[in-house]
Amino acid sequence: MPPQIAPPFGYQEVVPLLKTHRLRLPAAGEVPEFLRRANAVPISHTEFQPAAREYAIVFTTGDEGKTYAAVAVLGITAGENLFFADGAWAGGVYVPAYARRYPFCMARVTLNQVQQQDRLICVEKSALDEAAGEPMFDAAGKPVEKWRGIERLLTEYEADLERSREMCAVLAD
What we know:
alpha+beta
């Protein structure tokens, strides 16, 4: 049975990132499609200070208070992102890491019905573009400079999310 990868909120279909992939990356300030109509976006605890300058931060639960997650409020009504205008994130406003990491993510993998401890670096399948996309690794399989920054963002954000989950577990208690 092949491993099953659960895409995170907003992602459609993610696949493991391969060194041979070429990707169509969003332009600076470009907002992922799913966030254009999202009224909240997940944030980590180290983002609280910069995010609080722009957004209300709330703790939400989807399981009747067993667990919580921190989100930055983007709008009041469903489908409303007040920080998306003219095809981009509002100028001069902090962009949460969840949006900046797109189309990449770290995903949990289930193998033989067992969730694996380690996470896998994945990419939104629709971002794959073998013809016109950018490589993240050179022909020898070494990371290009652009990938180093993306990998650092993914690694730091994922570690920070884990600390945020621990903090929210204390809140749930």
